[in-house]
Amino acid sequence: MKKILLIVSSILINCFCYSQTVDEYPFEDIYEICGEETLELVTPENYNIIFWYELPFSVENNSLIHTGNSLIIDVNSPWANVEQIAWEATDGENNLYSTTQVLFLDYPTAQINIENYSSNERITICENDPDITLNATTNNPNDLYQWYLNGLPIENENNSSVNVLELEYNINDENYFYVEVTNICGTEESEEVSITINECNCEFNIPNAFTPDGDGLNDFFPEQKNASRNEEVNINCDATIYSMIIYDRLGRVVFNSKGEINKPWNGKRRNSNVNCKEGVYYYKIDYNLNQFTDQDDSQIKSGSVSIFRKD
């Protein structure tokens, strides 16, 4: 079997066109041709009385028939739409017969469609919003897909679509998606799609009592934040920043954290070691619920908190 692959540069279409010449018997069952490629089927040497014709053959339907030594087929050829091609020839002693089918495939195209959104916009959603499905639109039913999230391939996501909120995305940050589409004609990557996924229902939970007795449980109001927290690990609903003032029943300030972010009250009067008595105190907290999301407006909450101590 001899195959010759010629690469011809075409300025008009600004791409490579491939011409494949096949000189073999029997012909393969199927030849797959990409885009503007050309396939030439050539009768081997020493054969004559050659016939090419389409199957199913019908005189009434003016079925195609050709008597040349070779048959050239491209996407614009009338043979491109033939269901099957038959070839008959003789070497003077033996009559030979073969059939083949030519399939024309498009080069892969990779585009992402998002229902109700444009793929060109920067999309922002909440984590508890309805999911978003990314659909890869391609031309060939047998294309293969590989999805990428933030530059890394998504394992076991080889379908033409993915659901964003089912993936391991970055919370309160931009996430970048693209798809790689592959078939026998090559590989194509889509443009990136940007989707920011936020926690949108954050709450600052403030207790109504605490027990500052040094036992390591509920010793602070609000509960003391983890000292190791920083902006890199704090990008979530716990990213609240606050300052507060505490008053006694007479309206006197017993604690003021102004100028010190996220400093809880330890139940002592001002910055001394004098314990405040058991009872009810009143707070005013100025807080920013989540500085990393769209819930970054400053808010104020007032209320009462009770101190209880062990006997």
Q: How would you describe the overall organization of this protein?
A:
The protein is mainly β and 311 residues long. It folds into three domains: 2-105, Immunoglobulin-like (Sandwich), CATH 2.60.40.10; 111-198, Immunoglobulin-like, CATH 2.60.40; 202-311, Immunoglobulin-like, CATH 2.60.40. Helix content is 0%, strand content 44%. It is built from no helices and 23 strands. It has strands at 2-10, 15-23, 30-34, 38-42, 48-55, 65-66, 70-73, 84-90, 95-105, 111-114, 123-126, 133-137, 144-149, 152-153, 161-163, 173-183, 186-189, 193-198, 209-210, 241-247, 253-256, 279-288, 298-307. Strands 11, 13, 14, 16, 17 and 18 form a six-stranded mixed sheet that branches. A five-stranded mixed sheet has the order 3-9-8-5-6, with no helix packed on it. It has a five-stranded mixed sheet with strand order 19-23-22-20-21, with no helix packed on it. A hairpin with a 5-residue loop joins strand 20 (241-247) and strand 21 (253-256). It is rod-shaped and about 120 Å long.
